[in-house]
Amino acid sequence: xxxxxxxxxxxxxxxxxxxxxxxxxxxxxxxxxxxxxxxxxxxxxxxxxxxxxxxxxxxxxxxxxxxxxxxx
Length: 72
Prior knowledge:
It is a single chain. Helices cover 12% and strands 35% of the residues. By secondary structure, it is mainly beta. The protein has one domain (3-71). It has a 3-stranded antiparallel beta sheet, with no helix packed on it. It has a two-stranded antiparallel sheet with strand order 1-2. Strands 4-5 form a two-stranded antiparallel sheet. A hairpin with a 7-residue loop joins strand 6 (57-59) and strand 7. Mean pLDDT is 48; it is low at 10-29, 52-56 and 63-72.
């Protein structure tokens, strides 16, 4: 189970709703080559393949992962 630190404390992947999307749908100006450019995205979250700096969105950049998870 992947865990990271979010605004409400520890967030586990099992607590998220996973929404399928194309790789071009969820990449935006805050990301470059799979790295979150926002200063409040923690190293722990990045190491787990998620960015918790996007107001309820976690973006997976793990190899072969093409999903966006929206926190309930």
